[in-house]
Design goal:
This protein is α+β, with helices and mostly antiparallel strands. The chain is 19% helix and 38% strand. It comes from Aristaeella hokkaidonensis.
């Protein structure tokens, strides 16, 4: 993609024009970033409902029919099921197991396991398992 930046007079309003053949998740994320917006997910902690920015999410896990959002700051519960969150989230997120969605931008490294699975180390030091059925898509997204 070609990017063009032009300087304008400080009195003029800044704007961006994005010309695309198809509006993809990557383009939507770029638009959100340019508009200083970020998608959010409602989460609960200590009896309060808060809005968690999707760029802060490391992974989301389903345990006993309850969904938990993990960030650098802690773990929060959300009322959404994983399939609903998949629709809400953009291309930075990938289903990594039947009960888990991971933010691929929070992956520090990946290592193949003997049984076809992969082990991913996240930026916060946690390690998660990528199930065999999701390894191919992860490799494609990471360019491995």
């Amino acid at each position: 993609m070609k990017v063009e930046v032009k300087r304008i007079h400080p009195d003029e309003e800044e704007n961006a024009v994005i010309r695309v053949a198809e509006l993809t998740d990557s383009i939507r994320s770029a638009v959100d970033l340019l508009e200083n917006q970020c998608r959010t997910v409602p989460v609960q902690a200590e009896g309060k409902t808060m809005m968690c920015r999707t760029d802060q999410i490391y992974y989301i896990e389903s345990v006993d029919k309850r969904s938990f959002v993990y960030t650098k700051g802690g773990c929060y519960e959300t009322k959404y099921r994983l399939y609903e969150l998949e629709e809400l989230l953009d291309s930075r997120f990938l289903r990594s197991a039947k009960a888990m969605i991971v933010n691929i931008r929070k992956i520090r490294s990946v290592k193949s396991e003997l049984n076809g699975r992969m082990r991913a180390e996240l930026l916060n030091g946690e390690q998660i398992i990528i199930s065999r059925g999701y390894v191919k898509e992860l490799k494609e997204k990471l360019g491995v």
